[in-house]
Recover the amino acids of this structure.
């Protein structure tokens, strides 16, 4: 029987870092989820679709602006045993290119504003956020690779706290304070409420950048040309994979906006965010796992460790998926404040399953990152993007928003399967496949069954969740005993 945690000390450090990164990821995203309640209260679905489109574009351009340099930095900084040339080269490269790209976006703003269909003020906020966020990529990565999760968590939490605070100021307090002045209310009303959300984001990004500035000014500038070429070759497929990932994550919203209307897109985008609980888990796990994978790859038992991490991920992810379905009634009551959004509620179990497969894919990606075959990640993501595009275009006119949810599940599950089978050829990891499939299929089936059978019976769903948890403990009892003994 495969033990979940045979190397206790290694896993304790991994668990500690993941827990801290989890706070750094969960707390900001949890605040964002709480803000979703405010946003769905003050914004109708049509306005919420504008907010969604803005962040879809931010995500896409973020990938272009960073062109895989973050992952390349991780790879070469650990491979060359923390050689400072890697830090200098990565940061200087992003500094120069981000300034260049920002200038281009500003010079060609007229046609781009028409293409993106946004207000000029929103466009200027857009490119400012892009520049600031890009300049913070390497500082964040440096904290992770140097095992400084507490500082990483502080910066992330600071950013989202400022963002949340100014959301409250702009969307709740300003209208209240201005209520006694007709001129101030008129000035406030001249801008759509979604505009103030973007201003809050800009203030948060600028504040966090200023907080990073003492660290950034200590980075020496300079590019090692040979090293830069190697990092670029390594990072370019990662960038393309990232672009395909953005398509997988966001093409559905754009397609729904065009094929089904902004109201449907806004409702879908808001309910889709309930899947953020699985995203939080995946992000926290990934932030802790990525440095762990690179730092452990020279150890003799590295592959066994990777297999055990995958099992841990699936076990915990399956419990989380059931937990979200069990408490879905409460979650909806807290975070969705307009009944118009509930039309898309049926996507929840599909999106949760899709994100669990995405997390599995992220864990499987270790083989092509460690063997410098990042082109495979690009290929797998391209296949997923093709599935996403074709499925959405063909099926949205037939089954509306459910097409987008099923397309997401199909894309991520196919990507995971492709990565698994190709990984067996190039970097075979002894995954406990039988156990993983059992936990994955059982939890997915239970989630769909609970949602369809007892949509309003929280008590019954919680009981099923508890029974599933007890089953997991029973199956992994020996491994748990080993952890307790050590």
């Amino acid at each position: 029987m495969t033990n979940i945690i045979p190397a206790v000390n290694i896993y304790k450090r991994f668990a500690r870092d993941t827990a801290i990164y989890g706070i750094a990821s969960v707390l900001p995203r949890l605040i964002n989820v709480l803000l979703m309640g405010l946003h769905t209260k003050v914004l109708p679905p049509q306005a919420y679709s504008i907010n969604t489109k803005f962040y879809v574009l931010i995500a896409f351009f973020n990938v272009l602006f960073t062109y895989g340099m973050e992952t390349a930095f991780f790879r070469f900084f650990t491979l060359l045993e923390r050689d400072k040339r890697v830090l200098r080269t990565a940061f200087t490269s992003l500094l120069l290119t981000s300034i260049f790209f920002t200038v281009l976006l500003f010079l060609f703003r007229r046609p781009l504003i028409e293409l993106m269909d946004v207000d000029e003020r929103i466009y200027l906020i857009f490119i400012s956020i892009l520049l600031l966020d890009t300049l913070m990529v390497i500082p964040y990565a440096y904290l992770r690779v140097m095992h400084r999760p507490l500082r990483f968590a502080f910066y992330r939490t600071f950013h989202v706290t400022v963002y949340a605070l100014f959301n409250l100021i702009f969307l709740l307090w300003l209208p209240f304070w201005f209520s006694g002045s007709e001129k101030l209310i008129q000035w406030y009303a001249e801008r759509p409420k979604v505009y103030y959300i973007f201003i809050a984001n800009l203030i948060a990004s600028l504040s966090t950048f200023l907080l990073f500035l003492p660290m950034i000014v200590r980075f020496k500038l300079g590019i090692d040309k040979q090293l830069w070429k190697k990092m670029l070759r390594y990072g370019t497929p990662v960038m393309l994979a990232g672009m395909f990932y953005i398509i997988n994550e966001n093409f559905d919203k754009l397609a729904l906006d065009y094929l089904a209307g902004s109201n449907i897109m806004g409702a879908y985008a808001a309910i889709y965010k309930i899947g953020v609980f699985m995203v939080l888990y995946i992000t926290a796990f990934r932030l802790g796992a990525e440095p762990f994978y690179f730092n452990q790859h020279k150890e003799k038992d590295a592959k066994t460790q990777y297999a055990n991490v995958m099992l841990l991920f699936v076990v915990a992810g399956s419990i989380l998926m059931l937990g979200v379905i069990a408490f879905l009634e409460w979650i909806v009551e807290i975070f969705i404040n307009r009944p118009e959004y509930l039309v898309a509620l049926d996507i929840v179990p599909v999106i949760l399953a899709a994100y669990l497969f995405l997390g599995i894919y992220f864990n499987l990606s270790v083989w092509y990152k460690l063997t410098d075959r990042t082109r495979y990640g690009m290929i797998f993501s391209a296949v997923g993007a093709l599935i996403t595009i074709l499925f959405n275009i063909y099926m949205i006119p037939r089954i509306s928003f459910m097409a987008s949810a099923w397309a997401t599940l199909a894309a991520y599950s196919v990507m995971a399967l492709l990565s698994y089978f190709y990984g067996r050829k190039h970097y075979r990891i002894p995954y406990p496949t039988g156990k993983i499939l059992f936990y994955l299929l059982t939890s997915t089936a239970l989630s769909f069954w609970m949602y369809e059978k007892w949509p309003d019976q929280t008590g019954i769903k919680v009981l099923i969740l508890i029974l599933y948890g007890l089953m997991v403990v029973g199956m992994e009892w020996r491994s748990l005993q080993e952890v307790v003994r050590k």
In short: Residues 8-485 form one domain.
